[in-house]
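Response to reviewer comment R2.3. The reviewers asked that we include at least one raw input/output pair. We reproduce the pair for Transglutaminase domain-containing protein here without editing.
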Amino acid sequence: MKALLAVAMLVLQVNPASTGRASGESTRFVFAWRGVPVGTVSLSLEAGRFTYTSRHLHVREGRAGERVREVTLDVEATGRVAGADAVPQALWLWHGPPPEGCVKGREELSGQEGPHCVTSRSPTSAEGTMLGARFRASYDARGRLQALDVGESRFTVAAPGERLRTPPELFADGVPVEGGVDGALKLVPSKQARPTAPVPDRLPEMTDWTPDAARALSRKVHAAFPDKGPTAADWRSGGEGEAGGCLAHALRFASLARASGQRVGLVHGLLVVDGGPARPHAWVRVAVRGGGTLDLDPTSLDPVRADTHLPLALVAPEGPGLEAGERWLALLRGDWRVVRATRRE
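Raw output as returned:
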């Protein structure tokens, strides 16, 4: 069966728009996991050489930095790697929806090869699997990739020439806060900002709690992490581990709440401490029995106040967080400024 599949992949056509004929192009994408921006991916094709560059958030000893990885491959006019029978994964998707069927694809950074299949296709979309993982890609009218969803990850294109802060820069440096050190935080859109809906007070699936029970769980989660700071636990669905940052605390809270039959919301937002810049942060929101909501920060146990915590999005903890991803992307683009409510606009 494996031999038949290999033969089938070899005889199926590669997307003609993905071949080396279109040269001298480059595109950049923002990579987000569960709505959290973690890096950028740049693609370039020049004179038969395809380059894949990943710049992503790298945490070491509790500090956010950047890790750069780059792979350059010689590609033939068919789009396949020179001297091989595999197509670079990103190149296969980049220029136009690939035709239905399967090819052998190569994941650029790992070098892993295997079936890349399109099961459904239209002029502006493609769905299928890559190395067994389901994907959905969307394209513009020219057939250029605009967004790619793979599992809990999303890649969103950046416009040509667009000034875009990298996610590592956002985590390391934060966002300047205008208007002094007192007063509630708010977002002020730039002229080019796209209209966005306000952050909802609650999600439909959130269940009612008593404040005492929610605060008790927050203290329990806080105590479960002796070491505070970004680690791999922040990228685990339940925040598993004994060391972790704000996302690990929020995900652990949500996981324990779910185990007891309760549903909460995950807040993506910004935190301002001691008059510094606004830095990415995460906390939780619970629905209160009798009406209203309560925001809790299990990382610090500090009160969630309008002058320190600024919500960007409220999402389901176990979901892909696509809305949060759009809000973070707008912040990276510079569509919003963070100001104090006391500032006159």
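The chain has two domains: 2-158, 174-340. The first strand starts at residue 25 and ends at 33. Further pairs are available on request from the corresponding author.
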